[in-house]
Amino acid sequence: MAIDRAATLRNAEKLLRQGKLDLAIAEYRQVVDEFPRDWNTGNILGDLLVRAGQTDKAVEQFVRIADGLSEDGFLPKAHALYKKVLKISPNHEHSLLQAAEIAGSQGLIADARGYLNTLGELRRARQDTRGVAQIRIRLAMLDPADYVARFAAARARIDVKDAPGALRDFKDLAKELAEKNRDEEAIEALREAVTLSPDDQETRELLLRVYIKIGDIASARECATSATEFKALAEMLDAGGHGEEALAMLREAARLDPSDIPLQEHLARVFVARGDLSAAAEYLTVESAGDNPQLLLMVAEIRLRDGKIDEGLEIARKLLNDDPLRRQDVAMVGWTVAEVAPEAGFRIVELAADVAVKHQDWPSAAAALQEFVTRVPNHVPGLMHLVEICVDGGLEATMYSAQAQLADAYITAGSAAEARFIAEDLVAREPWDRANIERFRKALVLMGEPDPDGLIAERLSGQSPFMSTDLSLKGEELPPFDPNAPLKKVEPRTEEPAAAPADQVAPEEQDAAAGQSPSAPIAERGSRVALPPPPPTPKAPPPPTANQFELGRNAIDLQSLLGDLDKQQPTAHVKAESVEVDLSIVLDGIQQTAASGAAPAGATDLDGVFAQMRDESARRSTGGGADDDYKRGMALLKAGQVDDSIPLLQAASRAPRMRFATASMLGRIFRDRGQWQQAVEWLERAAEAPPPSAEEGHRLLYELAEALETTGETARALAICIELQAEAGRNYRDVAARVDRLAKVQ
To answer: With the CA atoms of 527, 530, 534 and 536 taken in that order, what torsion angle do they form, in degrees rounded to the nearest 10?
Structure first.
C-alpha cells in the first residue's frame, strides 16, 4: 500500500526534532524504499545513519545515490558523494575507482592518479596481481603523453592475458614515438611487439623502418627473415639513398626465393648496367630463362656484352624464328649493347633488320639501322647496310640522309674516293645545299686536290657539270643529245596509258604533268637544280670569294623553263619522273644561239641572254602569274574566305619557287579542317621543295609526321621522324619519344 510521502516526511522531521533518531530513520527509510530515486531523502538518510554509527549502511546508501547520479550524468554531484564515502571509508575500492574515472573525465588528472594509486596499493597489499595490472592499465589511459605509464599498461595487459591488447598498445606506442623522433623508445616498443607476435608483418616492417632511419643496417638485417622482408628492406634502403645495402638485401631475397623471376631479371639488369657480367650471369641463364622471351633477350644481351657474340646471336636468331614480330625487341637490345660494344650491337641490329627485310617491312628495317647509326655515328658498315635497305625499299628520303652520313663517315675514316663519289651525287641532286658543297670540298681536300674551291666553282658554273646517279630513274639512261632538237624533259621508258584530251585531264594529272605528284611520298623528291651565274667576263669585276657558292642574280630555274616548254606540247599529258639534267647542255645551247647571232636584240653575249631570259620571266610573272595568284589567295585567306583562297594557292603552288610556302599553307588548311588525306598530300608537296630555312623545314617534317600518324601510316611517320631526328637532333620537340612510340607500334 502506497504511503503518503509528504506526511511521512513531516512525521520523520518531527521525530528527528524530538530526538527520536531511530524512529526518524525508520520514517525516512520508508520514503526511500517507496521512492528509490528520491536522492535528497536518501542523502538525509545516509547522514542520519552516520550520526547513528551505522557507517556501513550509510556508505551503502551514499554509493547507491552516487551511482545513480553518475548514470544520470550528474558527475560533479556523484563525485562529491564518492568523496563523502571515502571520508567515511578511505579504502572503499568502488568509490576510489569511480572517483578516479570521474576525475579523469573532468581533466582532474592528479586527483584521478591519486585515487588509482591508492587503489593499486590496496590490491598489491592483498597480492591481487591481476587487479594491480588493471590499475596500471587505467593509469595509462589517463594521459596519452605519459609514455612511461603506457609502457607499463601494455606490459600489464600481458599479465592479464590480453596479448592482442598488449600488441596493439606497443604498436601504437612505436608509431607515435617514431613520429616524435624518439627512436630508441620506439625500438623498445617494437621489440616487445615482435616478442608477442613474431609473425606480425606490420610490426617487422615498422621495426625495419626505425632501424633504417637510425642507420642501424646490421640490426635491420637481423630483423628480416623472409624474402618479402628483405625486399621491403631493400626498397626502404634504396629510398634512403643506400643503394649498395639495398642491392645486398635484394640478393639475399633472391637467395631465399629462387622462383621470383622478376627479381632475378631485375638483378641481372642491374649487374649488366654495372658491367658486372659474371654477377649478372648468376641470376640469368638460358636454362633459368626457359621460354620467357624477355629473359632470353636479357641473356642474349649479357652474352653480347661479354664478347660472346655468336652465343648472343644464336639466342636472338632462335627468338626471331619463333616470332618474327620480336625484331623490334631484338633491335632495342642491339641499340643498348652498341653503346658499349658497337660491333656486337651492329650484328644484332643487322639480324633484326634482315628479318624485317625478309617480311618486306622496309621502314622497320631502316628504322632499326637509323637508330643504331644515331647512337654509333660514322659506323660505315651500318650506314652502308642502311643505304642498301633504303634503295631496295624505295625509302629515298632516308636514303639521302644515310648517304650524307656515309659520306661524312668516309671522310672521317680517310676514304677519300668513296666520300667524293657520294658527295658529288649529293651536290648534283641538291646543289643549293651548302652542307653538300662543304662535304664535297672536304672530300676533294682529302684526295689532295690543289684547288678544291675552283673545281667546285667550275662544276657549279656548268662547264663540267655534276652528274647525279638519281635512283628515281630506275636504271634508265638519258637519250643522246641532239643540238638541233628542242629542249624537253626526258621521260623514263615506262608503259603509260594513252593520254586523254586536255579538257578531260583531272587537276591532279595536270599537276603531275607539271612535275608534281600529289600522292608522291616525301622520299620521292624531284631534282630541281638552280644554276649559279656564269664565270665573269674579263671586263667584269671578280665575284667575292666568301660567297662563291651562292646563287647569283642570273640563276636559272630549269623546272620553270621546262614547264614552259611542256605547255607548248599540250597533246602529251604524262606523269613526269624526277630526272637530272646535264646543265652544260643548256648552257651550250644558249652559247651557240648567242654565237650564231640568233639572240634577240640586246642579247649579244651570254650575260645578255641571261638578262633577256630574266626579263621574259618577269614579264610572264606580272601578267597574272604565280605571284598574283599567291597574293590574291593570301588576301582571301586573311579575310576568312578560305574556300575561295584554296584554288588560287593551288595554282600558285605550280611555280617551284612558290611551292614550299603555298603547299605548306594548303596542308595546314586541310589539317585544321580535319581533312587529313588532303593535308598529307599537300604537306608532302611542300616537303619536296627546298625550305626557306632549316627551322621551317624541320617544322614541316614534324607536321607531316603528325598527319601521317593520324591517318594510320605509322611506318612512313616513323621514317620521317627518324630523318627529322637525324637533321634537327634528338632533342627537337618530342621527336625522340615519337620514334620510340612508333617503333613499338611497328
So the answer is: -140
* Neighbouring residues of 356: CB distance < 8 A, sequence distance ≥ 6: 327, 362, 364, 365, 368
The CATH superfamily assigned to 626-745 is Tetratricopeptide repeat domain (1.25.40.10)
Rounded distance between C-alpha atoms, residue 604 and residue 205, angstroms: 98
Q: Grid coordinates in use for 557?
A: 630555274
Q: Residue 479: left if φ>0, alpha if ψ -120 to 50, beta else—which one?
A: beta
* Contact (CB, 8 A) for 363 and 338: no
From the list 278, 221, 285, 275, the residue with the least C-alpha distance to 253 is 221
The CA angle 256-259-262, to the nearest 5 degrees, is 105
Encoded amino acid at 576, one letter: A
Instruction: Give the model confidence (pLDDT) of 379-413 as tens digits.
Output: 999 999 999 999 998 888 888 889 999 999 999 99
Q: What is the pLDDT of residues 646-701, one digit of tens each?
A: 999 998 888 888 899 999 999 999 999 899 989 998 999 899 889 999 889 999 99
Q: What DSSP element (H or E) covers 722? A: helix 714-728
Number of H helices, E strands in the chain: 39, 2
Residue 300 cell numbers, joined: 642474349
DSSP state of 491: P
Least confident span in 99-113, 238-252, 312-326: 99-113
Helices assigned H by DSSP within 214-326: 217-223, 227-239, 243-256, 261-274, 277-283, 286-289, 293-305, 309-322
**Bridge partners of 66?**
none
Q: Between helices 327-338 and 342-358, what is the axis angle to 10°?
A: 160
Strand 530-531 and strand 556-557: pairing?
antiparallel
Residue whose entry in the numeric block shows the C-alpha cell 646535264 = 582
Residue carrying the nine cell digits 642570273: 554
Find out whether 91 and 99 touch, Cβ atoms under 8 Å: no
Residue 546: CB atoms within 10 A of its CB come to 7
DSSP for 542-604?
PPPGGGTTS--TT-EEHHHHHHHHHHT-TT---PPPP----HHHHHHHHHHHHHTT-SPTT--
Residue type, 69: L
Beta strands in 255-401 (DSSP E): none
**For the chain, how far is it from start to end, CA to CA, in angstroms?**
102
Average pLDDT over residues 305-317: 85
DSSP string of 6-52, one letter each residue: HHHHHHHHHHHHTT-HHHHHHHHHHHHHH-TT-HHHHHHHHHHHHHT
Q: Residue 573 and residue 555: Cα distance in Å, rounded?
A: 28
Report d(CA 584, CA 586) in Å as an integer: 5
3-state secondary structure of 531: strand
- Check if the beta carbon of residue 489 is closer than 8 Å to that of residue 562: yes
CA distances from 430 to 221, 469, 601, 660, 682 (A): 68, 12, 34, 16, 21
The DSSP result for 373-442, as a single string, is HHHSTT-HHHHHHHHHHHHHHT-HHHHHHHHHHHHHHHHHHT-HHHHHHHHHHHHHH-TT-HHHHHHHHH
